[in-house]
Amino acid sequence: MNEKQIIENTISFVKETLKNAEGGHDWFHTHRVLKNSQLIAKTEEVNVFIISLGALLHDIADSKFHNGDETIGPKVAAEFLQNQNVDAIVIEHVIQIINNISFKGGKVTRTFSSKELDVVQDADRLDAIGAVGIARTFNYGGFKNRVIYNPEIQPALNMTKEEYKNSTAPTINHFYEKLLLLKDKMNTETGKQLAQQRHEFMELYLKQFYAEWGGEL
Ligand code: ADP
Ligand code: NI
Description:
Blueprint: H1 3-17, H2 27-41, H3 48-57, H4 72-83, H5 88-100, H6 115-126, H7 130-143, H8 161-166, H9 171-177, H10 189-213
Helix pairs in contact: 1-3, 2-3, 2-6, 3-5, 3-6, 4-5, 6-10, 7-9
The structure holds adenosine-5'-diphosphate and nickel (II) ion (NI).
Adenosine-5'-diphosphate is lined by residues 24, 62, 64, 102-104, 128, 133, 136-137, 140-141, 167, 171, 174, 178.
């Protein structure tokens, strides 16, 4: 099977698998990450086939939606790619991307590094910030029935991976616990540039939010 055919089959598989997914982790999120990855890849020397497969499969079974089990996503992705007769070395690289892409409170160190992981991670992070990032965050907070904002509950900046995963804090806190930290964690130059503009938009959004909340507008 050629690469184009494998990508097409992967798109169909992901669309079908994510058809009932939460709105911030659905096919449209995956599609945006694919497009962002391909955009960033233009300014990097990378294998676009690996990047595309990594982007397409990175949220195939997010542990948040599978009782915290981090092994299902890589397993499902590996089985699918084996059935497509993808080279073992490519499968291994894609699985490493899936295993190492996540933020998890910013407290985990990578067990693997590659330019391809850098690109897909930046693309996923870009989709966590800016206007789309804000929408996804409130959608997730609603999905978990969290309050939007509570001025009495401060953001927690030094959470362990477990605390981050189990947090039930107001959704606005997530801006301080993750979204606003991402621009300084971007790997690629293109990613950094794109993140800066989205970051400024979030700062403007928060300023307006507090002004409205405080009755100043
Ligand atoms: P990571 O594991 O890299 O943090 P996630 O899949 O957890 O990635 O996060 C993706 C997006 O889901 C976040 O950018 C945010 O929009 C939303 N999200 C995740 N956790 C929370 C949370 N505790 N509160 C609000 N939104 C969240
Ligand atoms: Ni993602």
